[in-house]
Amino acid sequence: MKKVYLVFLVILIVTVGGVYLLISLITRTNPKNNNQAQPVNSNSQAVQNTADNNQVSVNQPVNQAVSPFQPPLTKSGERITKKPFGIYITPQNSPVQPEKFQGYHTGADFEIFPDELTADVAVKAVCSGVLKVKEYASGYGGVAVETCQLDNEQITVIYGHLKLASIQYKAGDSINVGDQLGLLGADKSVETDGERKHLHLGFHKGSAINLLGYVNTQAGLADWIDPCLYICHD
Ligand SMILES: [Zn+2]
What is the pTM of this model? Predict the structure, then answer.
């Protein structure tokens, strides 16, 4: 009988010991799982955060490039049919006849559609800035110059062939992008200095006022920026 008790006792001890081992194994494994789970979670959070940050940092420059500059007219991209930026014009080769200009075009010309010939065509400010010039100038008729920031650099924006009387702003006034600057000058009138009704838009680097519509050398174009890089997207 004593032997039977002894065997029973041994089995009991082994069973209790085994259960204890099992429990301690499980409780050790669980914290391990938790510990493993936490770094995985925080890693994926970190990855998400970086992804968010990337998205923000990718979006910001895109917004900065696009949102501060807007087209001056509807369907701006479709209007540049005669004189894009940089084209070399002579009285002989010009798509506009008769032609009085010669040289490399410092801006882009936005043409009117046929139904706009006698209609009011509103020109919107392409950027937020300050009006610097509002005057009559040879070759333009009415011209307005606005200073703006483009990619953290100062530029002047030249709007040529405007009806001066339609410009509500005076020099020194702030203008918001998209606000109506004025109307296109009437076809072949004082307001366009005898030119066809269209908008000449020039982006000149720096803050100095330079109204040149053409330069004599291709190297001279380096002081100018193709406006279409920024405002011909619709
Ligand atoms: Zn022009």
Answer: 0.71
